[in-house]
Design brief:
alpha+beta, Putative zinc protease, protease, 5-stranded mixed sheet, Cytochrome Bc1 Complex, Chain A, domain 1, peptidase activity, metal ion binding, 204 residues, hydrolase
Protein backbone atom coordinates (compact mmCIF):
# COMPACT_ATOMS: atom_id res chain seq x y z
CA UNK A 1 0.00 0.00 0.00
CA UNK A 2 1.25 3.51 -0.72
CA UNK A 3 2.72 5.41 2.22
CA UNK A 4 2.83 9.13 2.95
CA UNK A 5 6.61 9.32 3.48
CA UNK A 6 5.91 10.62 6.98
CA UNK A 7 7.81 9.88 10.18
CA UNK A 8 5.28 9.46 12.93
CA UNK A 9 6.47 9.53 16.53
CA UNK A 10 4.61 7.23 18.92
CA UNK A 11 3.22 8.66 22.14
CA UNK A 12 3.44 6.47 25.21
CA UNK A 13 1.02 6.65 28.10
CA UNK A 14 2.27 7.74 31.51
CA UNK A 15 0.58 4.65 32.97
CA UNK A 16 2.96 2.26 34.76
CA UNK A 17 2.41 -1.14 36.38
CA UNK A 18 1.82 -1.31 40.12
CA UNK A 19 4.91 -0.98 42.31
CA UNK A 20 5.57 -1.03 46.04
CA UNK A 21 4.38 -3.45 48.72
CA UNK A 22 0.99 -5.06 48.11
CA UNK A 23 -0.70 -8.37 48.91
CA UNK A 24 -3.66 -9.79 47.01
CA UNK A 25 -5.27 -13.07 48.07
CA UNK A 26 -8.00 -14.63 45.96
CA UNK A 27 -10.03 -17.60 47.18
CA UNK A 28 -11.71 -19.33 44.26
CA UNK A 29 -12.35 -22.92 43.22
CA UNK A 30 -12.30 -26.24 45.03
CA UNK A 31 -9.04 -27.78 43.83
CA UNK A 32 -6.83 -28.09 46.97
CA UNK A 33 -3.92 -26.24 45.40
CA UNK A 34 -2.54 -22.73 45.78
CA UNK A 35 -0.58 -20.59 43.31
CA UNK A 36 1.95 -18.03 44.54
CA UNK A 37 3.42 -15.07 42.62
CA UNK A 38 6.08 -12.73 44.01
CA UNK A 39 6.67 -9.74 41.75
CA UNK A 40 9.28 -6.98 41.88
CA UNK A 41 9.08 -4.19 39.32
CA UNK A 42 9.85 -0.53 38.85
CA UNK A 43 11.98 2.04 37.08
CA UNK A 44 15.39 0.97 35.81
CA UNK A 45 18.59 2.31 34.30
CA UNK A 46 18.94 0.16 31.21
CA UNK A 47 22.27 -1.17 30.01
CA UNK A 48 22.98 -4.42 28.22
CA UNK A 49 25.17 -5.97 30.93
CA UNK A 50 22.58 -5.40 33.66
CA UNK A 51 19.86 -6.77 31.37
CA UNK A 52 21.81 -10.00 30.81
CA UNK A 53 22.69 -10.22 34.51
CA UNK A 54 19.00 -9.86 35.45
CA UNK A 55 18.06 -12.64 33.04
CA UNK A 56 20.80 -14.84 34.52
CA UNK A 57 19.62 -14.01 38.04
CA UNK A 58 16.18 -15.39 37.22
CA UNK A 59 17.63 -18.60 35.79
CA UNK A 60 20.03 -19.06 38.72
CA UNK A 61 17.27 -18.50 41.25
CA UNK A 62 15.13 -21.05 39.39
CA UNK A 63 17.88 -23.62 40.00
CA UNK A 64 17.99 -22.78 43.71
CA UNK A 65 14.19 -22.82 44.04
CA UNK A 66 13.95 -26.29 42.53
CA UNK A 67 16.71 -27.51 44.84
CA UNK A 68 15.15 -25.98 47.95
CA UNK A 69 11.39 -25.99 47.44
CA UNK A 70 11.03 -29.26 45.55
CA UNK A 71 13.97 -31.43 46.56
CA UNK A 72 14.51 -30.31 50.18
CA UNK A 73 11.11 -29.06 51.28
CA UNK A 74 9.14 -31.43 49.03
CA UNK A 75 6.40 -28.83 48.83
CA UNK A 76 6.13 -28.13 45.09
CA UNK A 77 6.31 -29.96 41.77
CA UNK A 78 7.97 -27.02 40.10
CA UNK A 79 9.14 -23.46 40.75
CA UNK A 80 10.53 -20.75 38.52
CA UNK A 81 11.93 -17.24 38.49
CA UNK A 82 12.48 -14.87 35.60
CA UNK A 83 13.80 -11.35 35.27
CA UNK A 84 14.29 -8.73 32.62
CA UNK A 85 15.25 -5.10 32.18
CA UNK A 86 13.81 -3.36 29.13
CA UNK A 87 14.45 0.03 27.56
CA UNK A 88 11.36 0.33 25.40
CA UNK A 89 9.00 2.09 25.61
CA UNK A 90 10.64 3.15 28.91
CA UNK A 91 13.38 1.83 31.20
CA UNK A 92 11.72 -0.75 33.43
CA UNK A 93 12.57 -3.95 35.32
CA UNK A 94 10.42 -6.92 36.19
CA UNK A 95 11.29 -9.96 38.28
CA UNK A 96 8.86 -12.75 39.07
CA UNK A 97 8.94 -15.83 41.30
CA UNK A 98 6.11 -18.34 40.94
CA UNK A 99 5.20 -21.79 42.21
CA UNK A 100 2.16 -23.96 42.98
CA UNK A 101 1.84 -25.67 46.34
CA UNK A 102 -0.59 -26.98 48.94
CA UNK A 103 -2.51 -24.21 50.75
CA UNK A 104 -0.94 -25.25 54.05
CA UNK A 105 2.57 -24.59 52.67
CA UNK A 106 2.09 -21.12 51.18
CA UNK A 107 3.74 -19.09 53.93
CA UNK A 108 6.58 -21.55 54.54
CA UNK A 109 7.53 -21.84 50.88
CA UNK A 110 7.11 -18.12 50.20
CA UNK A 111 9.58 -17.41 53.00
CA UNK A 112 11.95 -20.11 51.70
CA UNK A 113 11.86 -18.64 48.18
CA UNK A 114 12.62 -15.14 49.44
CA UNK A 115 15.43 -16.54 51.60
CA UNK A 116 17.06 -18.05 48.49
CA UNK A 117 16.85 -14.66 46.77
CA UNK A 118 18.27 -12.92 49.83
CA UNK A 119 21.20 -15.35 49.88
CA UNK A 120 22.13 -14.21 46.35
CA UNK A 121 21.70 -10.57 47.35
CA UNK A 122 23.97 -11.08 50.37
CA UNK A 123 26.56 -13.49 48.98
CA UNK A 124 26.13 -13.65 45.20
CA UNK A 125 25.49 -16.81 43.18
CA UNK A 126 27.88 -19.76 42.99
CA UNK A 127 30.31 -20.03 40.11
CA UNK A 128 28.84 -23.44 39.30
CA UNK A 129 25.33 -22.05 38.84
CA UNK A 130 26.49 -19.06 36.79
CA UNK A 131 28.53 -21.26 34.47
CA UNK A 132 25.58 -23.62 34.06
CA UNK A 133 23.34 -20.73 33.00
CA UNK A 134 25.95 -19.30 30.61
CA UNK A 135 26.41 -22.68 28.94
CA UNK A 136 22.65 -23.16 28.58
CA UNK A 137 22.22 -19.65 27.15
CA UNK A 138 24.92 -20.14 24.51
CA UNK A 139 23.62 -23.56 23.49
CA UNK A 140 20.08 -22.20 23.16
CA UNK A 141 21.32 -19.27 21.09
CA UNK A 142 23.14 -21.62 18.69
CA UNK A 143 19.83 -23.38 18.03
CA UNK A 144 17.76 -20.20 17.78
CA UNK A 145 19.96 -18.56 15.14
CA UNK A 146 19.13 -21.44 12.79
CA UNK A 147 15.49 -20.32 12.68
CA UNK A 148 14.02 -17.67 10.39
CA UNK A 149 11.49 -16.50 12.96
CA UNK A 150 14.34 -15.70 15.36
CA UNK A 151 16.03 -13.41 12.82
CA UNK A 152 12.75 -11.78 11.84
CA UNK A 153 12.07 -10.92 15.48
CA UNK A 154 15.66 -9.84 16.13
CA UNK A 155 15.90 -7.56 13.10
CA UNK A 156 12.47 -5.99 13.57
CA UNK A 157 13.12 -5.36 17.29
CA UNK A 158 16.54 -3.88 16.55
CA UNK A 159 14.97 -1.42 14.11
CA UNK A 160 12.04 -0.58 16.39
CA UNK A 161 14.19 -0.07 19.48
CA UNK A 162 17.03 1.69 17.60
CA UNK A 163 19.67 -0.80 18.69
CA UNK A 164 22.85 -1.80 16.90
CA UNK A 165 21.93 -4.72 14.69
CA UNK A 166 25.53 -5.98 14.84
CA UNK A 167 25.42 -6.59 18.60
CA UNK A 168 24.59 -10.24 17.91
CA UNK A 169 28.15 -10.69 16.62
CA UNK A 170 29.36 -10.11 20.18
CA UNK A 171 26.63 -12.08 21.96
CA UNK A 172 28.95 -14.79 23.29
CA UNK A 173 31.42 -12.16 24.45
CA UNK A 174 28.64 -10.30 26.30
CA UNK A 175 27.45 -13.51 27.97
CA UNK A 176 30.93 -14.54 29.09
CA UNK A 177 31.65 -11.04 30.43
CA UNK A 178 28.94 -11.29 33.12
CA UNK A 179 30.53 -11.98 36.51
CA UNK A 180 29.31 -13.24 39.88
CA UNK A 181 29.56 -9.67 41.13
CA UNK A 182 27.40 -8.40 38.24
CA UNK A 183 24.57 -10.78 39.16
CA UNK A 184 24.82 -9.92 42.86
CA UNK A 185 24.93 -6.21 42.06
CA UNK A 186 21.76 -6.27 39.96
CA UNK A 187 20.01 -8.30 42.68
CA UNK A 188 20.98 -5.71 45.31
CA UNK A 189 20.04 -2.79 43.09
CA UNK A 190 16.57 -3.93 42.08
CA UNK A 191 15.32 -6.70 44.38
CA UNK A 192 16.32 -5.68 47.89
CA UNK A 193 13.01 -3.97 48.63
CA UNK A 194 9.23 -4.15 48.37
CA UNK A 195 7.37 -6.70 46.28
CA UNK A 196 3.84 -7.58 45.22
CA UNK A 197 2.54 -10.87 46.61
CA UNK A 198 -0.31 -12.61 44.80
CA UNK A 199 -1.85 -15.81 46.17
CA UNK A 200 -4.64 -17.91 44.70
CA UNK A 201 -6.14 -20.23 47.32
CA UNK A 202 -9.12 -22.59 47.07
CA UNK A 203 -12.36 -21.49 48.68
CA UNK A 204 -12.60 -22.30 52.36
Amino acid sequence: MPGKNSNETPKFSSFRPLTGKHTKIIEKGEDPKSSVQIIFNGEADYNRKDAIAMQFLGEILSIKLIEKLREEEGGVYGASASGNISSHPYDWFNFRISFPCGPENVDKLKDAALAELQAIIDNGPTEKDLNKVKESTLLDNKEQIKKNRYWLRYLSNSDYQKRDVNRMLKFEEAVQAVTLKDVQSVAKKYLDGDYILGIHNPEK
